[in-house]
């Protein structure tokens, strides 16, 4: 028995070493039509084409994956990029040196970036997933680093996401076995289907696309009772952890604000849109509710696709002007050039900016998002064409669902802090500067938000609060693990209440200087205990 256990230990140790040395890389072909054929040979792939040179180059390696992907590919390279998993990184070098007529560029994937999980319906940017679902570009989920969040959790049936919207069908393939209609709603052109799919549509079922929190449950209700929000309070009392409201009105109700406070006390977070009115009409002064209520996470849209404006300059022939579209971290979808000079940084067109104001907490991608309602009702694969906020909110809602799934005891009042701490600061993006203070803390990052929750309670790494400049808002965070602050500012009206069981380290470039309205309270509490355990997709993650 002892010998058997020792042998098992050696086998598992060997597997661990092999897994760690496995090489992942991107490889770019010179021609979009090039697709080398492979056939399955046990656990590996065998080249089955007629190119003798390529066959010779591949024969000395064990290849697990060799397939096209849109992930991380620029516009001109979308159909030329391959994702490869092999036993040795030397394969990439061999192909680039000896098969230079076929391949022009390669890039190794760092070990930290291998900590991902992709279901089998992950669209055209799929790498380790099989892509059996809708053939659609899910680069917005890549941009949010959702596969890094899925490495820890894909959601939990015990965590319920509330959808206050148009109707869905509980027996629909994306919602069956996990959804319930609490109050009936109208069809609204499939709006509810699209919102529910983005937040929590079922993943890994070879159909549609995975929602952000795809293993979470869904309770659906309507969007009436604007003065009391009684339909939302009802969900909260039923144990719903986060509620999505992709709708809004311009009138404030004190009774509705009281309902929001009641739901927060119940442990429920509400996410709502800032709405779609163009900035050219709102001028940053139009607030919609429930997004504008205190303790609601208000969401607006931004762009995510092209890394630099030079990658997507377009020409409007009838007006003889150049313009840009869908540039990463821009809070508007389109913009133009002064004197039509494309060498200069563009300015955003206010008409292309969805409503921004001081109540907005976070922005996330708004264009190119899959519209499941169109597939459901019209059998069409379509994506959003403009920066509508309705489809943005469920990205945030799904992220929060993952956070609660990973650590069900996460205090609801700390969720917004984590979302903002882990967002991408976009203040230094030149075209955004005229709108500073109106787009919240910046761009949502689902991967970092979920990892922060993991770090707070796994006690493996320090929790990092970094790379942000906050001059307002109230922040609260309670971590079992050590906390590190670096390259971080809390100034003016900002309030921070931070508690750690171990240590709080104030590192370089950290500024803690609030004014008389602000406050910094740092506390070490050795008596802190976890209220529950982390619920991981794969328990072995704790051994990484």
TrEMBL record:
Q: For this entry, list what GO says about its biological process.
A: proteolysis
Question: One Pfam family of this protein, by short name?
Answer: Peptidase_S8
Q: Which GO terms describe its molecular function?
A: serine-type endopeptidase activity
Q: Where are the catalytic residues?
A: 165, 191, 390
UniProt keywords (A-Z) are:
Hydrolase, Protease, Serine protease, Signal
Family matches, as PROSITE patterns:
SUBTILASE
Q: Per the database record, which ranges form the Peptidase S8/S53 domain?
A: 187-430
Signal sequence coordinates? 1-19
Q: Does the keyword Protease apply?
A: yes
Family, per the entry? Answer: Belongs to the peptidase S8 family.
What the entry lists under PANTHER family is as follows: CELL WALL-ASSOCIATED PROTEASE, SUBTILISIN-RELATED
Q: What is this protein called?
A: S8/S53 family peptidase
User: Which species does this protein come from?
Assistant: Aequorivita antarctica
């Amino acid at each position: 028995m002892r010998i058997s256990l020792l042998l098992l230990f050696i086998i598992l140790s060997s597997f661990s070493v092999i897994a760690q040395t496995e090489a992942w890389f991107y490889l770019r072909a010179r021609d979009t039509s090039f697709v080398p054929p492979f056939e399955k040979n046990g656990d590996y792939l065998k080249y089955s084409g007629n190119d003798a040179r390529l066959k010779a180059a591949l024969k000395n390696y064990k290849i697990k994956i060799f397939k096209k992907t849109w992930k991380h590919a620029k516009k001109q390279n979308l159909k030329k990029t391959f994702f490869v998993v092999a036993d040795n990184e030397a394969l990439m070098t061999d192909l680039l040196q000896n098969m230079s007529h076929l391949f022009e560029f390669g890039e190794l994937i760092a070990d930290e970036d291998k900590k991902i999980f992709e279901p089998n319906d992950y669209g055209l940017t799929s790498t380790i997933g099989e892509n059996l679902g809708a053939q659609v570009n899910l680069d917005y989920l890549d941009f949010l680093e959702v596969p890094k969040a899925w490495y820890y959790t894909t959601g939990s049936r015990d965590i319920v996401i509330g959808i206050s919207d148009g109707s869905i069908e509980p027996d629909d393939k994306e919602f069956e076995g996990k959804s319930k209609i609490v109050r009936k709603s109208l069809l609204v052109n499939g709006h509810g289907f699209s919102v529910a799919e983005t937040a929590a549509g079922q993943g890994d079922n070879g159909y549609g696309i995975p929602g952000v929190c795809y293993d979470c449950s869904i309770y659906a209700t309507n969007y009436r009772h604007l003065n009391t929000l009684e339909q939302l309070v009802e969900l909260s009392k039923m144990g719903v952890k986060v509620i999505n409201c992709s709708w809004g009105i311009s009138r404030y109700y004190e009774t509705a604000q009281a309902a929001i406070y009641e739901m927060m006390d119940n442990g429920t977070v509400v996410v709502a849109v800032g709405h779609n009115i163009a900035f050219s009409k709102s001028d940053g002064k139009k607030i919609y509710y429930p997004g504008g209520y205190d303790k609601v996470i208000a969401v607006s849209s931004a762009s995510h696709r092209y890394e630099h404006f030079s990658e997507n300059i377009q020409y409007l022939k009838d007006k003889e002007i150049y313009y840009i579209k869908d540039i990463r971290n821009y809070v508007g979808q389109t913009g133009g050039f002064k004197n039509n000079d494309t060498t200069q940084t563009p300015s955003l067109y206010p008409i292309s900016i969805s409503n921004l104001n001081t109540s907005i907490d976070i922005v996330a991608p708004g264009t190119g998002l899959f519209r499941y309602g169109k597939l459901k009702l019209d059998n069409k694969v379509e994506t959003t064409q403009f920066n509508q906020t309705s489809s943005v909110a469920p990205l945030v809602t799904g992220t929060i669902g993952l956070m609660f799934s990973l650590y069900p005891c996460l205090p609801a009042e700390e969720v917004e802090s984590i979302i903002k701490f882990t967002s991408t600061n976009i203040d230094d993006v030149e075209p955004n500067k005229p709108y500073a203070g109106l787009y919240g803390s910046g761009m949502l990052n689902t991967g970092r938000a979920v990892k922060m929750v993991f770090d707070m309670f796994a006690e493996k790494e320090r929790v990092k609060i970094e790379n942000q400049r906050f001059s307002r808002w109230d922040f609260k965070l309670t971590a079992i693990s050590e906390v590190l602050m670096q390259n971080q500012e809390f100034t003016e009206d900002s309030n921070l209440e931070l508690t750690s069981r171990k240590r709080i380290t104030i590192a370089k470039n950290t500024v803690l200087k609030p004014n008389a309205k602000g406050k910094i309270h740092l506390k070490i509490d050795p008596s802190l205990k976890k209220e529950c355990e982390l619920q991981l997709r794969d328990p072995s993650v704790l051994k990484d």
